[in-house]
Design brief:
The chain has 96 residues and is an alpha+beta fold. A hairpin with a 2-residue loop joins strand 1 and strand 2. The radius of gyration is 14 Å and the shape is globular. The model has no long low-confidence stretch (mean pLDDT 88).
């Protein structure tokens, strides 16, 4: 199964670690610091630049091209779709 994040962009559900509301996330100093470091290190992929409502933290396993070992790659996607809507689309909330 896949989750549509907006602007014709989809990701596999199995890669999702967390769906985080952007407004409430930045109330915590620790979360602000986490996103600052993630942005500095290039982990954030902006699907949209303006009107960000949600961040989706993902991790997927890929094979290294040189030696074939498994490498974990983390990406944080920004979306202008609310976290509640994304949870519903993903089937994480059954009775809302």
């Amino acid at each position: 199964m896949f989750l549509h994040l907006g602007k014709d962009f989809v990701i596999p559900l199995k890669d999702i670690i967390a769906i985080i509301d952007a407004e409430t996330a930045f109330k915590s100093n620790d979360t602000r610091e986490f996103f600052k470091i993630a942005e500095e290190e290039g982990f954030i992929h902006d699907i949209v630049k303006d009107g960000i409502k949600t961040y989706i933290i993902t991790e997927k396993a890929e094979k290294d091209k040189n030696d074939g070992t498994e490498v974990r790659k983390s990406i944080i996607y920004s979306s202008n779709i609310s976290s509640t809507t994304l949870y519903k689309r993903a089937g994480f909330i059954d009775n809302i």
